[in-house]
Predict the structure.
Amino acid sequence: MYLTAIAAVVCAQLLTVVSAAQCNQDNCYRAVLAANTPTIHGVADCSSYFRTTVTPAPSTVTNTASATVTVTKTLLPFKRARDAAPEPTLVARQATVAPSSIPAYATPCSGAVRYSSACSCLGVTATTTTVAPSTVTVTTTQTSTTTATVIIPVPIPDPTPTFVLLLENSGIVLNGVPLDGTYANFDDGDGPIIGFNGEPKSSAVPLSITPEGYLKINALNIIGVYYTGEVPFELLHFESSSTAAYEGDTPLICSVLTGALTCTILGAPTILQLCPGAAVTDDLFFGPAVKSGCVAPTLVVVPT
């Protein structure tokens, strides 16, 4: 065995000599060769120079967690905030470190090509070292959204204060007495209605407008309605809201505009008018247009 080891050493030296004989033994080669001393290791430096280190990109392990978010929605139309732009995702890539540094003692070598050639003459070959990849754990949250609707009731205004109706701009004369300047009174002769018969304010019928817009006779708790199915022109009748709902009658929707009473039916304007001689008293009619023989007076709302 001892003889075999000696033979191996001799053969290695002979190969080095043969390799050296085939190389250009210039100053660069001699500088690298002379570096094989106990303090300077030329072959070791060549091996380091020829070594390429590859670091693979880390592998990603994704853990997914579940979460539920409850969003409260109200009736108020808030402006939706613009979503923020997502942060860019950085993807790790493989890193490769290649040889780059030539030792200071190899200054006779004019560059990387001659230094590499000298190292090759010493029997040094290129090697590649691959580092074991690392593992990156990423935790993501999978969010499910549920919506809870909160209804905010719209405030309902109180009914308008009680008022009476003052007649103006009619030009009607009843029994020699002008009706302008007189007040509406209750008439039950043709079913609960209101009309003008020259009564003073003290005899006027108190009215109000409910939060729904219904014209109401307060003392009797009845509202003005349109008898559904009849001709558009008719007397302004009053009945209870339960009776109107049962019979399918349509309440008039009224309001006070510039101090005067105005009404609509099913969203369409209707004209309150007086028709002398059409009834025992000058009762209040309504229709989409002023009927022949009738007038459209101003019904002034006077708070009581």
